[in-house]
Amino acid sequence: MNPVNLDGKLIAQVIKNEIKSLIENKFSDEVKPGLVAILVNDNPASRIYLNSKTKSCAEVGIYSKIIELPVSTSESELIDLIKQLNENDKFHGILVQQPLPPHINTNRINEIISPEKDVDGFNPINMGKLLIGDECFVPCTPAGILELISRYGIAVDGKHCVIIGRSNIVGKPLAALLIQKSKRANATVTICHSGTKNVENFTRSADILVTAMGFPMFLKENMVKENSVVIDVGINRIEDRTSAKGYKIVGDVDFENVSKKVSYITPVPGGVGPMTIAMLLKNTVEAAMKISGIKNV
Amino acid sequence: MNPVNLDGKLIAQVIKNEIKSLIENKFSDEVKPGLVAILVNDNPASRIYLNSKTKSCAEVGIYSKIIELPVSTSESELIDLIKQLNENDKFHGILVQQPLPPHINTNRINEIISPEKDVDGFNPINMGKLLIGDECFVPCTPAGILELISRYGIAVDGKHCVIIGRSNIVGKPLAALLIQKSKRANATVTICHSGTKNVENFTRSADILVTAMGFPMFLKENMVKENSVVIDVGINRIEDRTSAKGYKIVGDVDFENVSKKVSYITPVPGGVGPMTIAMLLKNTVEAAMKISGIKNV
User: Which residues contact B202 (CB under 8 A, 6 or more apart)?
Assistant: First the structure.
């Protein structure tokens, strides 16, 4: 039997439509939600990714701007810019595209972004509130994963969720989100990573398995439980001579074989990726509403 | 074969001696590390616990003071007091004894304590840094557990650690600490809690098992793996007619039977409890050194 494809592209479109209506109802042309994105590298992939974020902003009615800085930008120059943007009324959300060049301390930059405009949820205050279970901006990929499975009616409560990967943008905040005592979460969570021995012992016991390693087609059929849910956060380029570009994008999951065994699975591309962008829009609108004192009732 | 008792009382004394020497070497009588503790309830257990903290401060040469406030104290009065203490040069560490009365929001109070004086590590900034893997004050019980097992030469790296309990003061920060990519941590971590189904399936696979539920003698012999390490954070009062007080203190572990099967175990009392206090002293001295610009070289 074929599994259900968790169609992130479709669900993201549904959410974008909801956000578009919300903006039309709650905002005027004078006061529009605004997002500013800072790019400090000449990585073409980062630029493509940022362009798709600003394109989505335009679709729903969020004003957005990309500020491109040369790789030689110093940490203090970047900090000064962020401080100005913290005070800029036009922007309710600020994001700094990662990765940053090695001479800039990413943690230090995340601390500078005003917690009220921290739509990526990477400021330690928001990370700490997430862990504590307090209201905060949830990082977009973990938020997108939870939103996607919840829109498909998959309950997390009481399930064993196994996360492979402990990055600060996916694995750690996702674990923090899923262990909370709330109806949407309340999962038993195992965090696996490069230091985990016999990872297949953990993945085979997962009701919901999330791979976020960046290791093409790592997860094989014999590593998953029958009828489980598999969420693939990986975005990996591999050579593909049959394609005009010479490469194709695959996830961390051997989709073709794993999909025969599980009940739900996300495709790559078109799974978690679009959901991440949808959550960025949602966080930006929420930031704008809070800052502008607009209530969502 | 009997297991090794992880003697927290003994190790805490060793650490206190180290701290005492450090204070004698690095501080003068004019500039001493100072800790202020605020108690906002008339719970005798809280007072006893605080008294043991200040007694330990005196032993090592930390100046300390307990400020007792009536249960009727308002949240804003408490906030004002903390703000004053944030500015008070005499105190390098501020702790607010939990639990607080229900009309005071604990999360809000934790946010007010200056991150530089937050020796309990409960301010969301410190919690977030802990999750991210940045330098911060680590909450005392998780720090004490890691210190205790590491002083006994038990490696955590690559082990499966199962934590039962998701409190903001033990379970969550301990998980955040143990998953970090560092020599002292790097464990595969599972977080179980009241929403976990068939908890014994998880506990039986644990190399290191930490119980922090507050459920007397919950963990039975058939729930642990042979030769595993068991850390009992529980402190529960149960009736004991043979005792003059009419009660005795037990942990979350059925010590008598579990201890026959495992390789290391913490007693209750005398295991994690004294380590928690030792870590509070350590955090206070570190806060004092940072604030006073004293280097530990």
Answer: A188, B162, B190, B192, B196
